[in-house]
Design goal:
The chain is α/β, with parallel strands linked by helices and 713 residues long. The chain has 23 helices and 24 strands.
Length: 713
């Protein structure tokens, strides 16, 4: 039966039959009352495309508009709500800009108030003299107006049917809006939708989990999170810790952790390669190193060897602080695979990082007689035949490794560097390049425990929590433009002692949009200031051969000062470099600042990181700089970074392939996360097929959008 639209696109029945079209969670938003095609396009910008999206698009804050005040009791500067009577209304056109202002004068027994709306002359038709109205907005003073008090663009509600009050006289939800759709319009859509259709929301959690965790029902939680009636403490609502919020947070974590439990269960049952952990190549390689492995490296290698011997697929995350020696651990793992007649690959997120790994690794293993190949989209003569033929035993590359045209002869181990820039989808694609090859994830970003639980719940986690012997803490200090002479003095002092210096800039060339100092212009200025110093320049637009040449000259000491963009964030190890200046440090992320700082402090000398910051800058930037000054501990840095940036984009969960967290906060809700995780993993043990809970199974598949390589039907 075709749908017929009328009255602002509300779904309605046809005249020829009494049939009412069936609505479901997947009903397109344009068929919701008060929406229609034009508003549907606006809502799409907010990620709202279906009825289900409306239910789970929650307010970002709440305002308490229950307390109706008399006009004489309104406080200047406060957000207040008052019930009053219309005295007059008028549309005024300003003489110069011809702007139309709708002015409403209202009163109660204690005084008068004026309300103004700009460029909304159509509002005049809504207000009649003597009409009762509730206004809610910020109170301002106007000494030139007879009324004395004003509100600009307040929310309003015509007072008649108290049961239908949406915008005032209650705890009012405030939604993130978009151009063309105001918070008030979204609130109206939400109210009408939840009132008419919230019965569609069904509880899918097992009853014993709901009872044992003392959770509110899901339909009630959705209603209460949007329009609180039972729980009206606005402070608790704004903290996101009301009973309704707790249920919704639990569900988000539960579905996330259940998906990770499915992945882990499936992967532990997958047959893999049982490697014979020989020590021929490994011993030869370790004996050739100019240093001894740390106890942490030895411990993690022991865990990896154990994983690789088992006849199941390894899925292990290796993480630790900058300079803790993950590359050596990865290389030993690759040598185990190669000695067993398999190939190994390492996938990095950028061409620069792939090149750096290639440079470091081929230098380390060429004495062993092994062939290392580099594969990135920027290389003209791609070694695809060497990879498919097996002559390339170790392959370093970017996402080019997972393209269909790239075939391995016998892939046994795949290592992914900086996993947070990839995701479960890319991990699965790499897995398909061989017969369930072992998978190792590496990241130089220390991961807070809470985040590791959330993002990597399907992996076994190994932490390299020890730095090589002799590593000295780097002294870090913030400087401002007025202190440049002091900075130059410190640089010259280090250079005079035969040390080397990094100068890091955020851009390659001067940008017209951002007043940042560029690496190219900075290098020119520094050459004038230090005419007796050999200065090199590296940046991302240089050919990698040229870039490698400059870096090699810096490493050998032929260059005293290296001016660079963030290409030096990883991979380069110069023990003689004892000072780093980061220009416009307020523009860098905290994890990136810590990564850059890790390039120094690798020798026996005291090292200094100078953060040149250009005010004014944000409170977040101030917190980042303070964190850099106060600690060199990567795990403390990671916790602070998580606190500053929030869980939403700390690792870019959209890219990671796991469901977004729309309402849960892994810092605030760690207790709920732990409870949800336990329930999810316990359920996977007792009912791995979820066949007793079909609605939960359907909801899980919907939440993960097919990314689970899914729960088998």
């Amino acid at each position: 039966m075709p749908l017929r639209m009328k009255n602002n696109n509300d779904l309605t029945r046809t005249k020829t039959s009494g049939y009412s079209p069936q609505i479901s969670r997947d009903t397109h938003v344009q068929y919701v009352k008060g929406v229609g095609p034009a508003r549907a396009n606006l809502l799409k910008r907010l990620g709202i495309e279906t009825l289900d999206d409306i239910f789970f698009y929650f307010p970002w804050r709440y305002e308490d508009r229950k307390d109706l005040k008399k006009i004489s009791s309104l406080n200047l500067g406060n957000h207040e709500t008052t019930l009053c009577e219309v005295v007059s209304s008028d549309v005024i056109t300003t003489p110069r800009k011809r702007m139309k202002i709708f002015e409403l004068t209202v009163k109660d027994e204690t005084g008068f108030l004026k309300a103004k709306w700009f460029n909304q002359p159509y509002l005049k038709k809504y207000f009649q003299k003597g009409q009762k109205v509730i206004l809610s907005g910020v109170v301002k003073g106007n000494p030139y107006a007879a009324a004395g008090l004003e509100m600009e663009s307040p929310d309003y509600e015509l007072f008649g049917n108290e049961d239908e009050l949406i915008h005032t006289s209650r705890i009012v939800p405030v939604y993130k809006a978009t151009e063309g759709l105001s918070p008030k319009q979204i609130r109206t859509i939400m109210f009408n939708t939840i009132k008419a259709s919230s019965h569609i929301v069904k509880d899918y959690l097992p009853e014993d989990i709901i009872r044992s965790n003392n959770l509110m029902s899901l339909p009630l939680a959705v209603k209460e999170a949007h329009f609180p009636e039972e729980f009206t403490d606005v402070n608790v609502l704004n903290r996101g810790t009301s009973p309704a919020h707790r249920r919704l947070v639990f569900d988000e974590f539960f579905l996330l952790e259940l998906g990770l439990a499915v992945l882990k269960k499936r992967e532990t049952l997958e047959k893999g390669i049982s490697f014979n952990v020989k020590d021929g190549l490994v011993d030869k390689f370790l004996k050739g190193l100019p240093f001894e492995l740390t106890n942490a490296q030895k411990r993690v290698l022991g865990e990896i060897r154990s994983d690789m011997q088992r006849p199941f697929q390894m899925n292990r995350l290796v993480h630790g602080d900058v300079g803790c020696g993950k590359t050596v651990v990865a290389l030993v793992s690759m040598l185990i695979a190669v000695e067993n007649g398999y190939q190994a690959c390492l996938m990095a997120p950028t061409e620069l990082l792939a090149e750096q790994h290639f440079i470091n690794i081929h230098r380390m293993v060429e004495a062993l007689g092994l062939r290392v190949a580099l594969l990135t989209s920027g290389i003209k003569d791609k070694p695809v035949d060497d990879i498919s033929g097996g002559s390339a035993q170790i392959v370093i590359g970017t996402h080019a490794l997972i393209q269909e045209t790239v075939q391995f002869k016998k892939l046994g181990l795949a290592i992914i560097d900086e996993q947070h820039r990839f995701g479960v989808v890319q991990r699965a694609a790499l897995r398909r390049k061989g017969f369930n090859p072992d998978i190792m994830i590496m990241t130089a970003t220390p991961i807070p425990r809470t985040l590791a639980m959330t993002l990597y719940g399907d992996l076994d986690i190994a932490v390299i929590d020890e730095l090589p012997a002799g590593r000295k803490p780097v002294i870090t200090k913030v400087f401002f433009p007025s202190q440049k002479e002091r900075i130059y003095s410190l640089i010259r002092k280090e250079l005079s002692m035969g040390r080397q210096v990094y100068i890091v800039y955020p851009l390659i060339e001067e940008s017209e949009k951002l007043d940042l100092k560029s690496a190219i212009e900075g290098a020119e200025a520094l050459r004038k200031y230090f005419p007796d110093i050999k200065i090199g320049l590296v940046h991302g637009k240089m050919h990698h051969d040229e870039r490698e040449s400059v870096m090699s000259m810096f490493k050998s000491g032929d260059i005293n000062m290296l001016v660079a963009t963030t290409v030096i964030e990883v991979g380069i190890d110069v023990p003689n470099a004892s000072l780093m200046l980061i220009v416009h440090s307020e523009r860098f992320g905290l994890a990136q600042l810590h990564q850059l700082r890790g390039r120094i402090g690798r020798g026996v000398y005291d090292s200094h990181c100078l953060l040149l910051a250009y005010p004014p800058f944000s409170e977040d930037a101030r917190r980042r700089l303070k964190a850099m000054e106060s600690t060199g501990d990567g795990f403390r840095i990671a916790e602070e970074d998580l606190a500053i940036r929030g869980p939403g984009d700390f690792f870019g969960t959209r890219q990671s392939g796991i469901p977004d967290l729309k309402i849960a906060n892994i810092i605030r809700d760690i207790g709920v996360l732990e409870a949800a995780r336990k329930e999810a993993f316990d359920l996977m043990e007792t009912n791995p097929d979820l066949d007793r809970y079909p609605l939960l199974k359907e909801t899980l598949q919907r939440k993960w959008m097919g990314r689970l390589e899914l729960v088998k039907s």
